[in-house]
Amino acid sequence: MGNAGKGTSANSLAGELTGITQKQLDKKFKHAADFGITTTKKNPETFGQYETAIKNHMGDSATKPQGTYGFVKDSKVFFNSSTNNAVVLDSSGNFVTGFKLTPGTAQYDNYMKNGVLR
Q1: In angstroms, rounded to a whole number, what is the distance separating the alpha carbons of residues 56 and 33?
Q2: For residue 95, what is the enclosing H or E element?
Q3: Do 29 and 42 contact (CB within 8 A), yes or no?
Q4: Would you say residue 1 has pLDDT above 60?
Q5: Where is each Colicin D C-terminal domain found (predicted)?
Q6: Residue at 70 is within a domain
Q7: What is the phi/psi pair of residue 13, to 5°?
Q8: Strand duo 76-80 + 68-69: pairing
């Protein structure tokens, strides 16, 4: 895999993402709006837009590895403090979920304090 030639410049986090399945995109499509997807219609085109948005998140220089996801053992959370979006990958680098965190909420505060996203 790697990220050579993918236009991710200095950020090597794009290489952390090794897989996104259609099934997982479908399951988590309710969060697509958090990544700028403006439609709720599920089809190959919108799944593609969502996948691209997740990859763009991982390639963004403001996205940093930060903590774990409490529901998936050995997961990694990649948080972007500019957008407040988080993407969760399992230990193999597969997309689990991704969504926006809202500052001031218990979820956000707990994650910032303890490094565990729930």
Answers
A1: 14
A2: strand 95-100
A3: yes
A4: no
A5: 24-106
A6: yes
A7: -65, -25
A8: unpaired
74/27 Cα distance (integer angstroms): 21
Q: What percent of the chain has pLDDT over 70?
A: 90
44 in a domain, yes or no? yes
- pLDDT tens by residue, 50-88: 999 999 999 999 999 999 999 999 999 999 999 999 999
DSSP per-residue string spanning 28-83:
TGGGGGGGT------SHHHHHHHHHHHHHHHH-TTEEE--EETTSTT-EEEEETTT
Q: Which two tokens stand for residue 17?
A: 């993402």
> Is residue 7 a part of any domain in this protein?
no
Full residue range of the structural domain in which residue 77 is found: 15-117
Q: Which of 95, 18, 109, 101 is nearest to 50 (CA)?
A: 95
- Quick one: which H or E segment has residue 24? helix 22-27
